[in-house]
Amino acid sequence: MDFGFCLSPSSHVKMDSVDLTTFNSLKETNPDINTCIACGSCTATCTAGNFTEMSFRRILLMLQRGKEEQAKKMIQKCMLCGKCTLVCPRGINIRKILLDITR
Amino acid sequence: MKENILIIGGGAAGMEAATQLQKLGQTPIIIEKSNALGGHVAQWDRLFPAFHPAKDVVEQMLANVKGVDVRMNTEVADIQRNENGFKAVLSDNTTIDAKAVVLATGFDLFNAERKQEYGYGIYNNVITSLELEKFFRTGKDERINNPKKIGFVHCVGARDVKVCNTYCSKVCCTTALKQACEMKEVFPDAEVYTFYMDLRMFGPGYEDLYLRTQKDFDVKCVRGRVCEVSEDMDGRLVIKAEDTLFGKPLKMTLDLLVLMCSMEKNKSIDAIQQKLGVANNSDGFMQIKDTYLGMNDTAKDGVFVAGTCTAPKSLPDTIAEARSVAVEVFNYINNR
Question: Domain extents for chain A?
Fold first, then answer.
């Protein structure tokens, strides 16, 4: 019998079961990704980010929180203009990393 | 034993070191390249965290340093080590024999023109933190005309590999909040925003200042680094940043933008530093002997350091270091 009730799935990020394979292999070739201070320069200057959800800062977080599919979907918005790489105060080669993720 | 101690730099560190060394029975000699003692502190209006007038501190320090041999408008032209210590030739061709040298040469403010994307030197309404202090002191700045919207940019020339300064400049966070509050005092109707990455409120009373900034002064802190500044048709500034907490890029029109410039080592001492054999660390400041127990020592015997020539520091930090260098020098002279 359906009483119209259900359990809401947990919205927690399940850190115990997060699959970090992509992030870890990315880290091997691009150790800089650990130095991000989440300042948002990349997003603020992003050509695509002015019209879409595109945000490199969040892509890095998504990969570390088990949202790889979401991250890859977001990368499709990137136009590879490289302005993010120009402004990054940590000197992260963002354009290359975006290409590496989709490779 | 009473010995000559050559102190290079007449800012807060040099003055305090001289004061203490004189009390310890030594003969400190201050070499100051400008025409006044007080260094950067003398250019400041009020100090964080409690809005204390900088003038009071400088006047007190000037009174304390009374009786010390001060050579104004003078630089060290040459310095040689000999069996008695050091022989310095000054720019006025006088020589000084000293048993020890204290480098208290301080910092230079980061040249904001190097971050061209912020438009300093290009747009009229972009000013530096130092210029704002001058406005507070004198009440005069042509660029500040009753602004309605004011922005502060943190970490200009700090934590930024693009200008080769990866270090945190330590004091700009607290200074930005202090100046933001002061702007609200001068222009109560203005909206004041600060753009930060982390607010590093590391000292006693600093977190209280942060609370007051939000509660009493209604300053809005936005978490995100300004990446670009441009000018609109009316000559107002348009800034771009990401509001990283909201997760969206942000655009805002401002009447005035203040750049919180970092500290860099004062490079005018480089030639003398080289002659003394004191190296720089990876941040470009002078290398100290040990982080914990040798912060006043260099790798060279008889050459000591104090203040912001070794790293960005607050005024209390600098004064504490100047006092400790006096003890270090005193012990060195007396072979203790």
Answer: 21-102
pLDDT for B284: 97
In the 8-state DSSP scheme, what is residue B288?
Answer: P
- At B305, list the tokens: 């350091």
Chain A: nearest CA to B283, how far in angstroms?
15
ipTM for this model: 0.86
B250 and chain A: CB distance < 8 Å anywhere? yes
* pLDDT tens digits for range B177-218: 999 999 999 999 999 999 999 999 999 999 999 999 999 999
Q: Which residues of B touch A46 (CB under 8 A)?
A: 249
Judged by DSSP in three states, B277 sits in coil
Percent of chain B with pLDDT over 70: 100
Q: Which CA distances in Å does B298 have to B102, B269, B302?
A: 10, 15, 8
B27-36 in b/e form (b: 16+ CB < 10 A) is ebbbbbbeee
B155 touches A at CB < 8 Å: yes
Cβ contact, residue pair B225, A49, below 8 Å? no
Closest CA to B266 of B240, B303, B305: B305
Q: Between A and B, how many CB-CB pairs are < 8 A?
A: 63
Contact between A55 and B241 using a beta-carbon 8 Å cutoff? no
Contacts of A91 in chain B (CB under 8 A): 161-162
